[in-house]
Specification:
CATH architecture of the largest domain: 3-Layer(aba) Sandwich
CATH superfamily of the largest domain: NAD(P)-binding Rossmann-like Domain
Mean pLDDT: 90
Number of domains: 2
Strand content: 15-25%
Low-confidence stretches: none
Helix content: 25-40%
Radius of gyration: 19 Å
Number of helices: 7
Distance between the termini: 38 Å
CATH class of the largest domain: Alpha Beta
Shape: globular
Order of helices and strands: EHEEHEHEHEHEHH
Amino acid sequence: MVAKSLGIIMHGITGRMGYNQHLVRSILAIRDQGGLLLSNGDRLMPDPILVGRNADKIGEIARKHGVTRTTTDLDAALANPNDTIFFDAGSTQMRIGLLTKAIEAGKHVYCEKPISETLEEALSIASLAERRGVKNGVVQDKLYLPGLRKIALLRDSGFFGKILSVRGEFGYWVFEGDWGVKAQRPSWNYRKADGGGMILDMLPHWRYV
């Protein structure tokens, strides 16, 4: 068995989603379980470098979780040939610029949704990735929720019979704000002006589900 290191540039991990879902529950969980076992018996070990504007914040996260690499210099991280994947969980308005830089540096990319605020920008970055020949993907984590996996299993087994129509009901985890209760998650992704809002933030999940 050979342990292979996989360098991953991780941007946006000081945010709620980037930290909890992507860093702690994904990359670090894989690392703490001894890496990803490959079909040939080798193990792939994630080796993240945390990238952010605030050195103190990313340094604190790194120390807490035993991550040895941090930087505030994205260009330097992109220039390192040992880091082959770029992950972004920053704000939507920054994403096109970040992904463009990463793709042009030859990095494979994986990012939070949505790709951008406009269809034209999303198509342009997808086209750039195709021209540069880099692997690319957008988070579609809701497909792997236990409840949805169970529904897929029941559908594939013929449990429902012939399906004529489907209605999905999804929540939006924020109070309306007009009855005296403070919003649960008043972060940027719930504000249209900051690249968020219900359509950009949640519709991508509902659409692919």
